[in-house]
Amino acid sequence: MIEERPFHPLDYVSVVRRRMWWFIVPLAFCIVVGGALALLLPRQYLSQAIIGVAAPTLSPELLKGVSSLDWQERQRAISQQLLSPAVLQRVVREERLNPDVPVDQVAQWLRTNVEQNISVPHPITKSDSRNGIDSFILGYTDSEPVRAQRIANRIAYVFVEENSKSQIERSENTSEILSQQVQVSQQRLSNLENELRIKKQANMGRLPDQVNANVQTVNGLRSQLESLSNQLHSEQDRLSNIEGQIEMMRQGGTGTTASSVAAIQAAQAHVNELQKQLAVARTLYTEKHPEIARLQEELAGARKDLGAVQQQSTKDDTLATDPAYKQKVQEREASRMRIKELQRASKASQAQIALYQTRVDAAPMVEQELQSLEREVTLEKAHYTDLTQRHQSATTAENLARKQGGERFSVLFPANLPSRPTKPDLLKIIALSIVAGLVLGAAAAIGREFLDRSVHDVRALQTEFEVPVLGEIPRIPA
Length: 478
Known about the structure:
- This protein is mostly helical.
- Helix content is 71%, strand content 6%.
- The protein is built from 13 helices and four strands.
- It has helices at 10-18, 20-40, 60-63, 71-82, 85-95, 103-115, 145-202, 211-251, 257-284, 290-316, 323-403, 426-451, 458-465, and strands at residues 45-54, 118-119, 133-142, 408-413.
- The chain has a four-stranded antiparallel beta sheet with strand order 2-3-1-4.
- Helix 9 (257-284) runs antiparallel to helix 10 (290-316).
- The longest helix has 81 residues, at 323-403.
- It is rod-shaped and about 195 Å long.
């Protein structure tokens, strides 16, 4: 049985010695290729400018409601402004970049260049308790360092200027539009209030907020009517009593001539009036007309009353000198006048009660008519108040933008002149070429060793022929 020889770490050394050039040649080739790339690739120089975001110089109470963006939205808005066509196209025109190519295409290429070189060292917030200024970095890469510095500075200053102009224009436009909306809302609110006022004037006394007053008035008038009714009944009883006394005096032979004369004159005047009406009616109608028949009946009754009064007057002539009779007649006339006044007051109270009761009954319908209009007035007032507040905020923002009292940008540090290129990265290329050479050389040496079928030691001889090795002659260097 053949004794297997143990493996020794020096065997690796022998392999390395045999395949040294298979390892060194690929490594040297990769290093040479990496050096050639580092020397031949075009240089790209990055020039960076730092834009400072100055905190507002006014109090937070004054700036409340002017800006409501959080830091993420503000950072996104700043990036959009920096990469806007207005800024980039202006830079292209002022720097005359690729004048043979359309401006919008060059601006798109410039946007890609600048977008890759924007960095924010700290989140852009409204204020920084440490220094009061936030900042962000914008850069531009070019094959020439001087041109990279010049274009980076141009982009920074154009951005600051355009941002200031856009803030003022945006504030002016917002303030103008809100002012127009405020005027329109104010006019509509005035029209609605005028319409509501006209309707309330037309329904004055029947308004919902006057219901309680109307109910109280109705109750007061009912109490007054009840009092007047009691007084009227009392006065009617008094009149009946006086007339009874006068009738007893007449039956006793006492009376007054003045009252008889007045009664005769009144009866005669009534007869004359009816005769005139009958004469006028006969000129208009025939004798069989109902109006003529009615007037004839009234005229016959008036003549009968006149005769009765004339008969009574002869009896009353003897009572003209009786003072008691005169006093009773005066009391009777005063009582009759008092009754007429009470009756007139009662009718007026009843009319007032009916009027106010009608107002109370009509209040629900009036309330329904006014409800929709009052709702529109309320909504328009809220809309007008909101527009007024927004207009005041926009006016404040406009004044701040004009006086630069709010947040503003400035070039904190102009673009630097780059001293070394950012591309290609020499250290990175050399490191990658060395790593690639090591990997390729090791792979070549290992592959050549496995493909080599020659015998170099006792182990390989025993493995190949499976015969024992009797002796080994060491290598004798010449």
